[in-house]
Amino acid sequence: MGITAVSGVKVGHYTDLDAVTGCTVVLCEEGAVGGVDVRGSSPGTRETDLLRPTNFVQEVQAVLLSGGSAYGLDAACGIMTYLEERELGFKTRHGVVPIVPAAILYDLGIGNPKVRPNSRDGYEACCAATSAEMEEGSVGAGTGSTVGKVLGMESATKGGIGTASIALADGTVVAAVVAVNAFGEVVDPATGEILAGPRHSDAEGFQSTLEVLIKGRKAFRQGYRDGESTLATEQVEDAGVNTTIGVVVTNATLTKEGVNKLAQMAQDGLAIAIRPSHTMGDGDTIFALATGKEREPYGDITALGAVAAQVVAESIVRGVMKAKGLGGVPAASELGIN
Questions:
Q1: Angle formed by the axes of helices 119-127 and 75-85, to 10°?
Q2: Residue 102 and residue 120 in contact, taking contact as beta carbons nearer than 8 Å
Q3: What is the pLDDT of residue 293?
Q4: How many CA atoms lie within 13 A of 337 on its CB side?
Q5: Which of 26, 66, 188, 258 can bridge 254 by disulfide, Cβ–Cβ 3.0-4.6 Å?
């Protein structure tokens, strides 16, 4: 069932197929203890400092995953409005203040770069939020996602948004939703086979990002472009145009320290399914939420973290395999390569 397998969690998408962008909201209206791990070098985030264990506020009411680069952070304001109307948030003497951490991915290289998710779109995503099975692929924050960009957008493959969940023997559930917009390729965690990545110019299979980097991008790129370009120019083109972002949720009871450790271990799911991950041009960010409140803090963070990495990896694979081609970028499922 994916992320909505955790009771009390709702997910809503806003999708703009014309501009090829969108956003996704994960709602925990009853509040959840939040944590985060930011490991990419080009992040675009909001309210991540608040999630540190030493800081005061304990719970969040929603997390935003958005396209639109840093412009897309504006969608969080619409989520705040939605929650304020329902009097959900951190209670102060003068009203509630909804806590909405957010992360963005860069999708301005596909579709219309002048159209980005805004406050209205964040509000609409909340209105669409449901506890039913989440739609995956080229929707929400996955609408403009692409992967395999070591040779530029002309050889990229469509990314998307995916979700997965695992129930432990004691009934604890760990689930994830991930929007996959990586510089590197997505691989099958079991075999290492490239599922979606930089395409050969003849459309016969995918290339290895690592092999391209070892041999030099300039040599490979000459097959895609006329003339020569310097490596410095290529690096500027690739910088900051990626980022994989996601949310891990569990029904376990965790402290702020525990949920931040969960987010840290969940990031390993990116390294399992994306080659390479956490690059200079990726702002890879994973949030973690714990909805449990009635029990003692969960004792085996190692088990939760190991499962979290697995559901993140599964979500990444599902995101690219459920995707559909948009903006001139084909999806893996349409190429007949796998």
A1: 50
A2: no
A3: 79
A4: 22
A5: 258
Average the pLDDT over 241-256 and give the result.
95
Three-class secondary structure of residue 79 per DSSP: helix
Instruction: Please give the Cα distance from 326 to 18 (Å, whole number).
Output: 9
CB neighbours of residue 214 within 10 Å: 8
Cα–Cα distance, 103 to 69 (Å, whole number) = 9
Q: Confirm if 154 and 290 have CB atoms less than 8 A apart.
A: no
Shortest CA distance to 23 belongs to which of 61, 62, 75? Answer: 75
Average pLDDT estimate for 47-69:
96
10 Å Cβ neighbour count for 31? 18
How many whole angstroms separate alpha carbon 262 and alpha carbon 256? 10
Any idea what DSSP says for residue 5?
G
Q: Residues near 54 by Cβ (< 8 Å), separated by ≥ 6?
A: none
Owner of token pair 């998408």:
13
Sequence-ordered list of residues with C-beta below 8 angstroms from that of 114, at least 6 positions apart, any chain: none
DSSP secondary structure letter of residue 199: B
Measured torsion, CA atoms of residues 290, 295, 296, 299, in degrees rounded to the nearest 10: -60
**What pTM value is reported for the model?**
0.93
Q: Average pLDDT of the chain? A: 92
Q: Please tell me the distance from the alpha carbon of residue 35 to that of residue 258, in angstroms, as a whole number.
A: 8
| CB neighbourhood size of 114 (10 A) | 8
In angstroms, the CA 260 to CA 264 distance is 6
Taken as a whole, the chain contains a residue count of 338
